[in-house]
Amino acid sequence: MPNKPKLGQNFLNDSQAVERIAASLGDLSGRTVLEIGPGDGVITSLLAAKARHVVAVELDRELAAALRTEFPFGGNVTIIERDILSFDLAQAAANFASPGERLCIAGNLPYYITSPILLKLAASHAVLDRAVLMVQREVADRVTAQPGSRDYGLLSVTVQMYGPAQSLFTLPPSAFSPPPDVHSTVFRWRFEPRFAELGVDEAGFQRFVRTAFAQKRKTLANNLRAAGIAPAAVESALSSAGLDQKTRAETLPAETFAVLFKALANVLSPKFIT
Q1: Contact present, 153 and 134 (Cβ < 8 Å)
Q2: How far is CA 110 from the centre of its chain?
Q3: Beta-bridge partner residues of 104
Q4: pLDDT tens digits for 201-234?
Q5: pLDDT given for residue 126 in this prediction
Q6: Nearest 5°: phi and psi at 39?
């Protein structure tokens, strides 16, 4: 079936990579897997052989129809024609998973909506256990980056606050049909949110971190002052965290952002944190 470039369709044709992706999810015995963008069903078939149930969410109408022919009703694969960004993951867990079970996620994410999908998964963390995702290599580098590295930034902190992310392997364009213009990296993400551990409010902390990274070329102090926080409060918070005025957000781990957030809690205006 021809691909549709506007939907970011590049079908994986490397059988070893398919095996590695399925294996990277770990033991799927008795588990429910939700696959994002199953495409031509190559990964779906392998997941179906390993898992109790596979829920495959496909946006393309023609591909969804072909998948329903390949995986007819009554088997352990359910095909749902839907945009993953409007799909209710919590309801899917309630409908398809065993009581108390959290979903496993697999997917070759369309490059043009990778970040929105990652944010959606983060927002649904309560019903998710782990994910093995294929994304553009540069995105995976940012997701898994450590403080002080070239790729570390807002996306790194945002994703890693919901659990550890680890790069697994990278595939060349030739592993896909048609070949994309970029390399792709598979990474694993375990959903183990850190907000309670660090003693911070989820929504408020994420807004604070976005402000800290607002202007990449500015220092952390300048970004915080630009958001309306009094200079004296910024200086005091930085001092309490053992930081100076020249510190940049891209050098700080989540633990330090949490220290700053709590130090500034009494001066963050409603306008700033909404």
Answers
A1: no
A2: 13
A3: 33, 130
A4: 999 999 999 999 999 889 999 999 999 999 999 9
A5: 98
A6: 65, -115
Residue numbers of the chain with a pLDDT score lower than 70: 1-9, 269-274
**Phi, psi dihedral angles at 33 (to 5 degrees):** -115, 135
Using CB atoms within 10 A of its CB, is residue 253 exposed (0-12), middle (13-18) or buried (19+)?
middle
- Cα-only R_g, the chain: 21
**pLDDT, tens digit, 9 for 90 and up, residues 82-97:** 999 999 999 999 999 9
All structural domains of the chain, each given as residue ranges with its CATH number in brackets, are 5-193 (3.40.50.150), 197-273 (1.10.8.100)
The Cβ-side half-sphere exposure at 115, using a 13 Å CA radius, reads 8
pLDDT value of position 269: 58
Distances 15 to 6, 42, 128 between C-alpha atoms, Å: 25, 9, 27
Q: Which amino acid is at 14?
A: D
Structure tokens at 234: 């910024």
Taking the C-alpha atoms of residue 169 and residue 184, their distance in angstroms, rounded to an integer, is 9
Report whether 221 contacts 247 (CB < 8 A). Answer: yes
| pTM for the full predicted model | 0.92
By CB atoms closer than 10 A (0-12, 13-18, 19+), residue 193 is middle
